[in-house]
Amino acid sequence: MDLDYGTLDGRRPYYRFGDSDADPLFVLPGLSDAFQREEPNRGTAMILSSLFREFSDRDVWVVGRPQHLPVGSSTRDMAAGYATVIDEHDLWPTDVIGVSMGGLVAQYLAADYGDYVDSVALVSAGTRLGGHGENVMRRWRNLAGKGKWADIVAEMARESATGYEQTLAPTLLKAAGRFVDFRPVVPADAVISCTACLEHDSREILDDIDAPTIIAAGDADRLFPEPRLREAKDGIDDATLALFKGESHDLATSESRELNGILRRFFDGFRGDGLHP
C-alpha cells in the first residue's frame, strides 16, 4: 500500500494511502483536526490507513483544514479551500466522506462545487447542531479560549462515546492532562473551528446538492440528534439515511468496519434500504 503524508502549501495537513493509480476518495476529518498536537506523522498515517482499510484499493486522501485559519472562517469558506485542493491535484470527480465537522464542510463542497463531487457521505453530521450540541460547542470554545485543553479532550470523549467508555475515557484523559500537554499545534484554530460549527446552518443550500448522498449516524448522537439528520435527508433530492442503533457521535471509529462497508456499497452504486445497518 502506498503511504504518504505531510502538508500542502506548508499549511494544510494531509494523509494519502491506498492505490495512487485508482479512483480518488476524499475524506474531510472532524473538529478534532483543529486539536491535533502533532504535525502529520507516520504513526497517524498507519492508524488512518487501518481505519479506512475497506478502501485500500482506492486513492484515499484525508485532508485537514489549513493551519492558521483566518478569523471568521466559515464552513463554506473551508469548502472553497477544499475545492482548490481537489482541482489542483486533479482529483475530480471524487467520492467524498465528511466526518462530523467535515460533514458540515462537505455539504457546501457538494452544493457549491458539484462538478467536483461524484457521491458524498455525511458521517455523524446534520444540517446544524442540536440544542445540546450548541451548548457543548460553546463550552468547548470557551475552554479553548482559556487554554484548558485536557478538559476539552475529556469532554469530547464523553460527548462522543457510549456505554462504559462515556465515563471511563474522560476520567483517564483528565488524569493524563497532568502529564500530557494537549495543546494543539495552532490553538487559535480550535476557537475558530468551534465558531464555524456553531454558525453552520445548511438548510437553505441542501436543494443545490445534486450528488447522491448518504447520511450515516448513530441514533444516540447527542451533538447531531435524529431530527437534524432527517432535515439533511429530506432536504437533499437524492439522499439515503443510515441510522446505527445505539451508536453515538464516535460512529466513524466505534463501528468503522460496518460503516465503511455501507459507504463502500453506496459509492459502488447501491442505494436504498439495503444499506441500512
TrEMBL record:
- Where would you find the membrane-spanning parts of this chain? none
Record's signal peptide: none
| Stored InterPro entries | AB_hydrolase, AB_hydrolase_1, AB_hydrolase_fold
- Among the Pfam families in the record, one is Abhydrolase_1
Enumerate the spans annotated as AB hydrolase-1 domain. 75-234
Molecular functions (GO terms): acyltransferase activity; hydrolase activity
Keywords in alphabetical order: Acyltransferase, Hydrolase, Transferase
Alphabetical list of Gene3D superfamilies matching this protein: alpha/beta hydrolase (3.40.50.1820)
Task: Name the chain's protein.
Answer: Alpha/beta hydrolase
Q: Which organism is it from?
A: Haloferax mediterranei (strain ATCC 33500 / DSM 1411 / JCM 8866 / NBRC 14739 / NCIMB 2177 / R-4) (Halobacterium mediterranei)
Gene label: hydD
